[in-house]
């Protein structure tokens, strides 16, 4: 199971580009340790409980900025953000982790919680697409998507991780419209499988991988080169957000979901590269298919 990053109210100070400076800690332990740390870095024993937002790792930058804006509007509410792979967060909510809001990069993870009666009716939050990233030096000479067969060290998300599932769907689509055996040849280049998209990006940033398939939004904020995925092979990841049932912060959780879905929230997500079409357009343009449902 993957590590989590917990970010508390300490993000208020400006960082590069005027964004909140991340001072949360990264945990190599199980997620429950991160939850305990979230409580420690949040309110005191005598103070109010923070609003705990569990969110997919790819939302780290956008939700960090969103938390600052939300706290300015609602100074009585402290927001604690917990980031990990959507599948990790789902498992922890199933085990009773103290989450108030869940934002998933994979509709399947959200719908599983909804079927279990653990999440209220979710809303469509945003969309994302995928790209290949390579180091600036591009040692494997990957200039187009078909060049992935040249990679000596390819890293992908694990099959149960949304970004890993989407990546494998892209490879299947590319093979259907191209040379036979392409997907198998590319998968044969995989040397590591990671539990969230930020770990994939880090491997490429540190020169430990020749290439990775990540969300477009993660490529935009890193010192890497992006290589486009052909439009006919790409997928559109759909992000859903909902209030966790049983939360003691029902009103605050509803305000967060409403803020994220508001015009201000959508503008913020759009600035971070997310797709914020209207729901009708989203359905019409959705390429993800039923595999992730």
Helix segment tally: 11
Side-by-side strand order of the widest sheet? 2-1-4-3-5-12-6
Order of helices and strands: EEHEHEHEHEEEHHEHEHEEHHH
Give a quick account of the main beta sheet: strands, pairing sense, barrel closure: 7 strands, mixed
Shape, principal axes of CA atoms = elongated
Average pLDDT, rounded to a whole number, is 84
Counting DSSP E segments of at least 2 residues, the number of strands comes to 12
The percentage helix is 25-40%
- Secondary-structure arrangement, i.e. CATH architecture of the largest domain: 3-Layer(aba) Sandwich
Low-confidence blocks of residues: 9-46, 280-293
Provide the gyration radius in Å: 19 Å
Q: What fraction strand?
A: 15-25%
CATH evolutionary superfamily of the largest domain: Periplasmic binding protein-like II
Number of discrete domains: 2
Kindly list the characteristics that best describe this protein:
2 domains; 7-stranded mixed β-sheet; D-Maltodextrin-Binding Protein, domain 2; disordered C terminus; alpha/beta; 293 residues
Short description:
With 293 residues, this protein is an alpha/beta fold.
Structure description:
By secondary structure, the protein is of the alpha/beta class. It folds into 2 domains: 173 residues, Periplasmic binding protein-like II (D-Maltodextrin-Binding Protein, domain 2), CATH 3.40.190.10; 99 residues, D-Maltodextrin-Binding Protein, domain 2 (3-Layer(aba) Sandwich), CATH 3.40.190. It is built from 11 helices and 12 strands. The strands form 2 sheets. Strands 2-1-4-3-5-12-6 form a 7-stranded mixed β-sheet, sandwiched between helices. A 5-stranded mixed β-sheet has the order 9-8-10-7-11. The radius of gyration is 19 Å and the shape is elongated.
